[in-house]
Amino acid sequence: MSDIIKLLPDAVANQIAAGEVVQRPASAVKELIENAIDAGADKIQLIIKDAGKTLIQVIDNGCGMSITDARLCFERHATSKIRKAEDLFAIRTMGFRGEAMASIAAIAHVELKTRRHEDELGTCIVIEGTQITSQEPIAAAPGTSISIKNLFFNTPARRNFLKSNPVEMRHIIEEFQRVALAHPKIFFSLHSDGNEMFHLPAEGLKQRIIHIFGNNYNQRLVPVEESTTIINLNGFIGKPEYAKKTRGEQYFFVNNRFIKDPYLNHAVLNAYDEILPAESFPLYVLFIEIEPAQIDINVHPTKTEIKYQDEKSIYAIIRSAVKRSLGKYNITPSLDFNQETGFSHMISQKKTEDIIPPTINFNPQFNPFDIGNNQPKERHSNYTESFEKKIGGIPQNWDTLYEIAHKTNSQQLTFDSANKQEPLNTVDEQQEKPAGKTIFQLHNRFILSQIRSGFMLIDQQAAHERILFERFLQQLENHQGASQQSLFPQTIHLNTADFELINDLLPDIHALGFQIRAFGKNTFVVEGIPADIGSGISESQVLEQLLEAYKNNQNELKLNKRENLARSLARNASIKAGTALGPDEMNDIIDKLFACTSPNISLSGKPIIITFTLKELLEKFEK
């Protein structure tokens, strides 16, 4: 029997490695930007076309590479970061494995232009699927420019698994934001299909957070700072009242490297215990500085998971530092001295004795109801005659029109078919004896309705959610959502990721009855909302809540776009537990609920209706 174990060719091995390192265009963006940071660049530009499927280009002003280094950087496990195994425990750079460039070159068309600052000419290398097609000297700016074209061109199965352009673009923005937050002292810019989405100058961490997420975050941030012998902790957390329904804006950085760690996330949430709204998640951007020898970052191919030597101590430090910052800063309003707060131009500079109060002249003898005394008699008589001519004279016995007001409230005159006068019950007495079905509301939460075999309890919020969900689904299918126009359109400012998400959902949002349009960079104008949404909530708040619920469902339930939108809007627009309902409203909910295709099951899969029979009641009373 011949040998069956063979060494894989380098091209195949690189494609296998690419499956771990480059999962989507955002993975390539992350690797290229991290390489630019390791090269010492203080200005990094990212250019995207077709959500990274057609082009990903990163331009930096770093140290550049020599001719030999430019060639070697595409070899597997070729790196300038480590020389021996012990170096793995002293890593402070972003990359170190030497797999990224080789993996990217195996599945794309790559063009590299680089020049060191001390060289006169640079180098241009073109690679197609691990094969170097050309290498020649060129005139280039100091630094490196690398272009990745036609990602996954030789692995069509991987390319077919990519999502739509808006979805892939959101992943790219997410990776870009993580790197930009970790390095606020570096200038970053992001261009997508010719439009500049981010322009982030070198600045402080707070300004970087505000530039990425929006100006309204200025008043939401609480600083955190703690220095110990184990770790140094600094960054910002969000005030509890601004917590959202999604986990999106939560960032942990260890030695400026973004990580995902549920254990440390629990430490932050534990610090918010009993002050956070239910099912809400706070914002935090926290940086941990720790000795590299105390951690192991070589755990996951994407380097987003880390092992610690002393996890419990780190947990306790983070929890206590966040809790102390909440107690120290959250009780007083935040002041931003960089903003204009002076109102001196609105205050008079005169002395108090020089200020003359305004005066009002009036006639204390004037009586507006005494026409005879206030107007000349001749004018009064002329006015009365002209008035009588217009109305055909003043009718006689006009005062008898008000005799009905002297009758008792308990009895009024009415006429039946035989023109007989009979007393009619008052409104209060009518409400005590409702006609038709007997309906009650329990604790402003449940609807109790009598049926032949007993009675049924209906969860009013779950029932209304089911009604609205099926109605919104039908509107999305037929594109016939009713809209109520806003008297005063409202402007809503979003961060770049949310702006791109709404652009992706815009046709379906219009089908639901929203009337919104783009109004500048990351801004929408809301001119109308669905007619099914009750009053008492602003148009911008409706859209923000819809967006948060959509992202939450997207992360947890993996619904398709239309079901997610219908569910999100139904949850926000439904009547809530604790809302008092009248008999007509309760009857309307019952009628519409039983007209649904699934009246018994709520959106969360729980029962809406529970039926109790007379037999069950009699058994409870032991009869």
UniProtKB/TrEMBL annotation:
UniProt KW Glycosyltransferase keyword: no
One Gene Ontology MF term: ATP-dependent DNA damage sensor activity
SMART domains: DNA_mis_repair (SM01340), MutL_C (SM00853)
Pfam families listed in its UniProt record: DNA_mis_repair, HATPase_c_3, MutL_C
Keywords (A to Z) from UniProt: Coiled coil, DNA damage, DNA repair
GO biological process: mismatch repair
Domain DNA mismatch repair protein S5 per the UniProt entry, residue ranges: 209-327
GO CC list: mismatch repair complex
UniProt xrefs under InterPro entries: DNA_mismatch_repair_MutL (IPR020667), DNA_mismatch_S5_2-like (IPR013507), HATPase_C_sf (IPR036890), MutL/Mlh/PMS (IPR002099), MutL/Mlh/Pms-like (IPR038973), MutL_C (IPR014790), MutL_C_dimsub (IPR042120), MutL_C_regsub (IPR042121)
Coiled coil: 540-567
Every MutL C-terminal dimerisation domain range: 438-581
NCBIfam families: mutl (TIGR00585)
Function: This protein is involved in the repair of mismatches in DNA. It is required for dam-dependent methyl-directed DNA mismatch repair. May act as a 'molecular matchmaker', a protein that promotes the formation of a stable complex between two or more DNA-binding proteins in an ATP-dependent manner without itself being part of a final effector complex.
Similarity remark: Belongs to the DNA mismatch repair MutL/HexB family.
Protein's name according to its UniProt entry: DNA mismatch repair protein MutL
